[in-house]
Write a structure and sequence with these properties.
Blueprint lengths: L7 H19 L8 E5 L5 E8 L2 E6 L1 H34 L5
Antiparallel strand pairs: 1-2, 2-3
């Protein structure tokens, strides 16, 4: 595998981006992993679904808790995207022996 050489300017830019991403991640607030699903054909109702330890757990949301659950799952999705970008940047820095 060929080593990708980064310039000092690229390294500094990557480190700044990492700091910005870390701040964004810290500011997300509460989050939870899972999905919002609807159950029922005649009277569909919103539920929060989580697969944990090979079992599916459902929580009835109703209209009152639905926006809260959407916010929490949205924060989780955003956190995953941020972590993925941080991983790519850290891999590039690590390859260039530029990780602090």
């Amino acid at each position: 595998m060929k080593k990708i050489v980064m310039t000092q300017k690229q390294i500094a830019k990557a480190k700044l981006r990492l700091q910005a991403l870390a701040s964004k991640l810290a500011g997300l607030g509460s989050m939870m992993r899972g999905s919002i699903v609807t159950n029922g054909r005649k009277h569909p109702q919103p539920y929060f679904s989580l697969n944990k330890d090979h079992r599916t757990h459902l929580i009835y949301l109703g209209e009152r808790r639905l926006p809260i659950a959407k916010n929490l799952t949205g924060n989780y999705s955003q956190a995953i995207r941020i972590i993925e970008e941080m991983t790519v940047l850290n891999m590039a820095l690590l390859k260039n022996d530029a990780v602090n």
